[in-house]
Amino acid sequence: MMSPRYPSSLVFSFFLGISPAWAAETAKADPAKAQQIATQVCAACHGADGNSAIPANPNLAAQIPEYTAKQLANFKGGERSNAVMSGIASTLSPEDMTSLGAYFANQAAKPGTATDKELVALGQNLYRGGNSGTGVPACAACHSPNGAGIPKQYPRLSGQHAAYTIAQLKAFRAGERANDPNRMMRMIAAKMSEREMQAVAEFIAGLR
What we know:
mainly alpha
């Protein structure tokens, strides 16, 4: 069950974090320009269609558009730190960010896979029910039972690379990633064990 200590409107913006206040589009999307940027700039790390072949780099295909645009804005503004992404985002306009969000949202996501049955079982329990003993709420509360997320509020998780999910959870726990509204993900990740992080990441990777 979800911990009562967390308000339902903010609970478990899991591993990604998006503020509902940022949900409104800030610029008009330009699909043609977005495709050009995706092909020339994004493809090497995320795939031209947003399906990354590199486990350390996130899948962007079918991601909620406002979330993708927000992350780009955070990289550009310094709220989120990554040398490669900060450099790329620094060249993007608000219109570019909105356009890329819309472009990747319209790409079909390839299904991910999970291989460790024991971890998947534990991850499923955490994803759907949380851990009431340690105050970790259920991921499904904000990201939906199938990991599709909630548009303009909470991002899609379904099929995300386990390696990327684990890295983000650890970054939140260490305070290295701090673009989560109201410190929600940092507080939640601090309550998770290494095995819980591995388990929920494995479950998410195979979630459809």
